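Why should sequence recovery work at all? Because a backbone constrains its sequence more than one might expect. Tight turns favour small or flexible residues, buried strands favour hydrophobic ones, and helices have their own preferences. The token representation captures these environments compactly. In the example below, the structure is given first.
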């Protein structure tokens, strides 16, 4: 099952179930369903979520919209996609692919053959988990992701993300751009939170796909393209078969001595490292396409001064 959130002019946020090229409106304030987060809280687990959404679709026989028509620049005057869930929390996992560990250690100046901090974490039983964002810091499809005003080297990090239900059950998958100010991260590892967490640091979408529909989560192609001046200046793909951990393992570390609310998103780390020369620029567009999920497209904006 694929679920989305979309905006309707004059009405606000609605919940949709994607069926082919159509999106069935399954919003039901009477049933307490105004958002995908409401559905996740009610369904609790993936089967519960699917059952609840199907029940609403059958009962409401709501209006259907055109899926391609929702894929447009957000505007108050036209229906458009929103992020597929408003996550109470977004967490990130790091160095979960060898490429991410090698690239980061090289850039941190670790001598060849020597274990750097990233290689250490790649091999360690304890994964790197960091707080990434709240819903207010995230954007949905076709809305701008931001380069912070004090960064000259911000990169896209294309990642498969999982959505958690109650007590850490896995209820869905989505695509995430863990936009990161690498220059700030490289200056000192203690600056990581500032490289990761700021307004517009995270894009999610285009939909939430439940586990029954995604198939093998360890065999998905993730592709990232950067479009500049109408041309793709970067396009690379990785398979999640190169993911070094198990999703359940990441979730169990996240839940240790921690209260993780339903609807939390955990982004699982990048296996594609965009070269430094292709750091994001104002006006770029980042496309992240994940097999079974679809394409998450976002324009890039440079913040010129700190925003309130
Ligand atoms: O350790 C820094 C961040 C790692 C990360 O975001 C990733 O590997 O995707
Ligand atoms: Mg990342």
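From this structural description, the recovered sequence reads:
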């Amino acid at each position: 099952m694929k679920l989305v959130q979309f905006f309707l002019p004059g009405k606000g946020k609605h919940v949709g179930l994607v069926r082919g090229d159509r999106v069935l409106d399954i919003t039901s304030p009477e049933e307490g369903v105004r958002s995908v987060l409401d559905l996740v809280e009610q369904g609790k687990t993936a089967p519960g979520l699917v059952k609840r959404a199907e029940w609403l679709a059958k009962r409401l026989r709501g209006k259907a919209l055109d899926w391609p028509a929702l894929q447009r620049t957000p505007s108050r005057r036209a229906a458009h996609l929103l992020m597929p869930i408003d996550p109470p929390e977004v967490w990130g996992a790091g160095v979960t692919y060898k490429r991410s560990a090698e690239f980061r250690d090289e850039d941190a100046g670790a001598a060849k053959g020597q274990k750097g901090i990233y290689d250490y974490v790649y091999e360690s039983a304890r994964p790197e988990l960091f707080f990434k964002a709240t819903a207010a810091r995230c954007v949905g499809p076709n809305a701008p992701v931001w380069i912070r005003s004090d960064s000259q080297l911000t990169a896209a990090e294309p990642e498969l993300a999982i959505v958690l239900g109650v007590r850490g059950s896995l209820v869905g998958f989505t695509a995430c751009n863990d936009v990161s100010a690498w220059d700030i991260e490289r200056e000192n590892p203690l600056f990581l939170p500032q490289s990761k967490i700021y307004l517009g640091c995270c894009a999610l979408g285009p939909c939430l796909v439940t586990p029954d529909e995604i198939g093998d989560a360890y065999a998905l192609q993730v592709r990232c393209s950067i479009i500049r001046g109408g041309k793709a200046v970067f396009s690379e793909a990785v398979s999640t078969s190169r993911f070094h951990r198990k999703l359940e393992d990441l979730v169990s570390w996240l839940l240790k001595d921690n209260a993780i609310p339903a609807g939390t998103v955990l982004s699982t780390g990048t296996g594609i490292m965009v070269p430094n020369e292709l750091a994001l620029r104002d006006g770029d567009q980042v496309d992240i396409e994940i097999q079974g999920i679809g394409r998450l497209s976002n324009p890039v904006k440079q913040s010129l001064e700190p925003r309130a």
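A few observations help interpret the result. DSSP finds nine helices and 19 strands in the chain.
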